[in-house]
Amino acid sequence: PDLSTLLGVQDFEEVARKKFSKKTFAFYSSAATDLISHRDNIESYRNLLLRPRVLRNVKEVSISRKILGCDSSAPFFVSPAAMAKLAHPDGELAIARACAEENIIQIISNNASYPLEDIVAAGRPGQTFFFQLYVNSERQKTEELLNKARNLGIKAIFVTVDAPIPGKREADERISAENFVSAMSGAVAKNDKKGGGLGRVMAQYIDSSLNWDDLEWIKRVSKLPVFLKGVQTATDAKLAAEHGCAGILLSNHGGRSLDTVQPAMATLLEMHKECPDIFGKLEIYVDGGIRRGTDILKALALGATAVGVGRPYLYSLAYGEEGVQHLTEILKDELVSTMKLSGITNIDQAHPGMVNTSRLEHL
Ligand code: FNR
Are 213 and 249 in contact (CB under 8 A)? Predict the structure, then answer.
């Protein structure tokens, strides 16, 4: 269908389901075991109810936001997702170009299908990129990658901590992997007794011995702000602050790692109770299940600085760079409308009182 007929984020999923190969769609859309957490991520926003205020002159609205001090035209970014080339020949390059046009931030995956330098070069000079890291059992390789990232002007490192081992994603396992190679990590996907899971084979280099003591090393080598991606409890949020992290991305990997874990919104509520002081100390981002402008505003109202969008961006690559831009514009447009209908004109005005959380608290 013509791109202009796609009106909402979910429309891109339908196109991707028809257009992508069965293997690609299975890899992108899959989640761990019974898909409970993947669905709950989306459900969590439906169970947060907005409390709009009226008569507040909402003619002019601004949605721009500083994310880790970097300018962004919107309070959302592209979450890191592996192997965008399966969706479009330009893969992560198309995302980088669209992010340049739209002035939003892309977090580049450690398992991207293009080398880091090519993705950065595809953008414009000075464009903000963050890099998502999986620590390699061969630490030397991680040191090289971190040095490269810093020299390329990457602004922050997101260490993924919710996947010391890959989740069990049956839809991905069921379809043959056909020797796919990931450019950045060099991992080769094959079929074996467990199936043909791309995610599982790609994860083989990840060091499952990683622990809190290693963060000092990552900070020292990268010389960049370090975020933890995949924090799921207030207890670990506190530990992240104690270990000198610049921030945390509350995430359960889009429900792809451990199934039946709580959604990021539940963790955010837990933090308000257990460690409210953390909100002033760390940058706090969330991802998983963001599909509407209303979802974005709810997360911001409850204290997130920014939110990440994963699968929808991969699906939007059905239309290459233009699709990524169109998806971004839909989300921006929905966020503007949500703010006007909620009675605020700047995202700094978003506050917890805008959201009735009682349904989510009783789930
Ligand atoms: C991911 N995600 C991910 N995360 C990460 O830290 N490194 C990675 O390489 C990947 N790869 C990846 C591939 C695919 C196909 C998906 C769908 C996801 C997780 C991603 O960053 C993010 O946390 C979720 O996608 C957010 O959930 P939604 O927006 O997809 O619901």
Answer: no
What does each C-alpha distance from 158 to 110, 126, 226, 284, 296 come to in angstroms? 10, 19, 6, 12, 21
- Ligand 1 contact, 44 CB (< 6 A): no
- How far does Cα 18 stand from its chain's mean position? 24
Whole-prediction pTM: 0.98
Ligand 1 centroid distance, CA of 187 (Å) = 18
- Maximal C-alpha separation, the chain: 63
pLDDT tens digit sequence for 213-246: 999 999 999 999 999 999 999 999 999 999 999 9
Report H helices in 250-319. Answer: 264-274, 278-281, 293-301, 311-316
253 is catalytic: yes
Q: What is the position in ligand 1's atom list of the atom closest to the CA of 80?
A: 21
253-279 per-position pLDDT tens digit:
999 999 999 999 999 999 999 999 999
Residue nearest to atom 6 of ligand 1 (CA): 160
Q: Is 201 in the pocket of ligand 1 (CB under 6 A)?
A: no
CA-closest candidate to residue 84, choices 94, 76, 74: 94
Told to judge if 28 belongs to the known catalytic residues of this protein, a careful annotator would answer no
Task: Tell me if residue 38 is catalytic.
Answer: no
Residue nearest atom 11 in ligand 1 by C-alpha distance: 81
Rounded mean pLDDT, 191-212 = 91
Sign of torsion over alpha carbons 318, 322, 324, 330? negative
Distance in angstroms (rounded) separating the CA atoms of residues 78 and 282: 20
DSSP string for residues in 169-231:
-HHHHHS--TT-B-TTT--B---BTTB--HHHHHGGGB-TT--GGGHHHHHHHH-S-EEEEEE
User: Mutation test of ligand 1: which of 256, 295, 309 has the most ligand atoms closer than 8 Å to its C-beta?
Assistant: 256
CA atoms of 363 and 269, how far apart (whole Å): 13
Closest CA to 345 of 116, 71, 55: 55
SS3 76: strand
Q: Ligand 1 center to residue 80 CA distance, Å?
A: 6
Please state the ipTM of this predicted complex: 1.00
Distance 81 CA to ligand 1 centre (A): 5
